[in-house]
Amino acid sequence: MILWVALAFVLMLIWQAWQQDYGPRPEVAVPAQQQTGESKPSATAGVPTVPSVETPVAQIQETLKTGQRIRVRTDVLNLEIDTIGGDIRQVDLPAYPVSIDQPEVPLRLMADSAGQLFVLQSGLLPGDKQGQAIDHHTLFSADQSEYQLQQGQDELEVRLNWDSKEGLQVSKIFLFKRGGYAFDVRYEVSNATGSEWRGHLYQQLQRTPPVENKNMFMMHTYTGGVISGVKPVTNEELRYEKISFSDMVESPVNQDMKGGWEAMIQHYFLVATIPNQEEINHFYSKRVDGSRYVLGMVSKAPRVVAAGAKDKFGFTVYAGPKLKDDLEVLAPHLELTVDYGYLTIIANPIFWLLHKIHNLVGNWGWSIIFLTIIIKLIFFPLSATSYRSMANMRKLAPRLKSIKERYADDKEAYQRAMMDLYKKEKINPLGGCLPILVQIPVFIALYWVLLESVELRQAPWIGWIKDLSIKDPYFVLPLIMGASMFAQYKLNPQPPDPLQAKIMMYMPIVFTVFFLFFPAGLVLYWVVNNILSIAQQWYITHNMEKAT
Q1: What three-state secondary structure class fits 365?
Q2: What global pTM score does this model have?
Q3: CA neighbours closer than 13 Å in the CB half-sphere of residue 254
Q4: What is the pLDDT of residue 228?
């Protein structure tokens, strides 16, 4: 039963990966602009319309214009900001190398290179027809092109400036803090025009889907958009709603929400924008230019700056790894981007325990081993019941085989004789299955914890295992796992049906092939769990045989 359930789980993962890579994609209507052969972008390209319009989506220009690059270095972030619009065009994470073999090359989370576009744009839309947009096409000026957080400095401010001839001055300010992947983007508006100024703040993430490995044996996690917030009319809370790239085509986001956040997430990392939690924004999305996707929000109520007055407002950005503790304090439900699926309620305490163990032992591989031992101890009573039932079934195997031979041509008589034997010996044939079924949600939750935790990325264990998040380079752990599954097969009662017995015998081989390409941390868990199960089953079976 354990093997069948595990096989079904693995097959489900493979099917999901196949659908993601090779499944049908929805047909997208050709935009009217392309149908008429026009390719010239409009003057307002890339700017969401004023919120009074029913669907404030973005019209994206074909290529991003480039001005002067402002390079910013903190202790955890390397960024490039373009003076056109103050776009964030590039983000590198020095603490997270691209691979363990290239420790000096940081992972590039955001970029504006061809085929790997992922940028953050923001701006101010006019609150009336006579107003001027200060959007992501506006050219800002900067006092310097290099900024660096110095030793002993806790905050770093980067300021871009723009002013009109009529007396309106706008500064776009980036405020970075030491040790933080979150930073603030603030607009400072000084109004010396003689009349009040009105403007709507917007921010949007624009990206192309990453090129993914088509190997269906590799683990695939969700890459795409996510939104969260509260619907102001019904007060319904959207805690965590995925907006996949295909969703942006089939059913674009067109929703007013209070507070919340928007994000583009991928395995281990995310970029999120977090508005003022007391304000209402209109969330929108769109697919443009065939392969570029936009997820954004624009404020419903305009900011008003009286003549001769000054005001500051903005939003927060998080660009970095999925660190639950950091995400929890930024916005409600942002920690759900560490996506454990439907078993989050079980996975959260498992991760908490795994993290506490790591604080004691200092190695994620040993932490997985100790966590597995603790889980096995917690479920010891259930497992013991299951193994006792299996031991009893094992003792009955010769008699069951004899009954099958006696009633080979009469299935009904065979079933009656078998049930009479179970009743006489007071054995429940499901006794070995039900306790294990209770444990399956915990095992699946632990699987997602190990798959989603960025802490395990490039984390070594011992010897040849230098990265628990990728496959075992020498396939030692998968082979040990296959051997342990074969040992379990030998300990379990053999099915009376020869064909079923043969299938069960080949199961360890099938699973070994599957697990060859699984992350080493996941395989380590299965190995330890199997070894502990074998020891426990042998001990219980041996004691029962001794007692008889």
Answers
A1: helix
A2: 0.82
A3: 13
A4: 97
129 CB neighbour count, 10 Å cutoff: 6
What pLDDT, on a 0 to 100 scale, did the predictor assign at position 424? 79
Q: How far is the CA of 343 from the CAs of 336, 383, 447, in angstroms?
A: 12, 21, 10
- For residue 56, pLDDT over 80 is answered with no
498-515 vs 476-491: helix crossing angle, rounded to 10 = 160
The DSSP code sequence of 19-30 is HHHHS-----PP
Give the residue from 220, 281, 221, 224 showing the smallest Cα distance to 247.
224
Residue 41 within a domain:
no
Reported as a single tens digit per residue, the pLDDT across 456-477 is 999 999 999 999 988 999 999 9
**How many Å apart are CA 223 and CA 87, to the nearest integer?**
22
Count H helices, E strands: the chain? 12, 19
Task: Pick the closest to residue 445 from 532, 528, 340, 329 (CA basis).
Answer: 340
Mean of pLDDT values over 170-180: 97
Give the list of residues 6+ apart from residue 461 with CB closer than 8 angstroms, or none.
Answer: 363, 364, 365, 366, 468, 520, 524
- 323 and 414 part of one domain: no
On whether residue 331 sits in a domain, the answer given is yes
* CB-based contacts of 93-100 (< 8 A; 24+ apart in sequence): 93/269, 93/320, 93/321, 96/268, 96/269, 96/321, 96/454, 96/457, 96/458, 97/458, 99/458, 100/458, 100/466, 100/467
Q: What's the number of domains the chain is made of?
A: 2
- My answer on whether 150 and 87 are in the same domain is yes
Secondary structure of residue 212 in the 3-state scheme = coil
291 and 365 housed in the same domain: no
More confident residue, 5 or 428: 428
Residue 402: both structure tokens together:
């004899």
The per-residue pLDDT for 43 is 33
Chain-centroid distance, C-alpha 72: 27
Task: Give the residue numbers spanning the domain of 233.
Answer: 7-16+65-209+221-339
Residues 329 and 370 occupy one common structural domain: no
Examine the domain organization and report whether 335 and 359 are in the same domain: no
Query: How is residue 134 annotated by DSSP?
Result: B
pLDDT tier for residue 14 given thresholds of 50, 70 and 90: low
- Residues 275, 359, single domain; the answer is no
Q: What DSSP line would sit under 113-128, residue for residue?
A: STT--EEEEEEEEESS
d(CA 15, CA 105): 34
Instruction: Give residue 54's pLDDT.
Output: 36
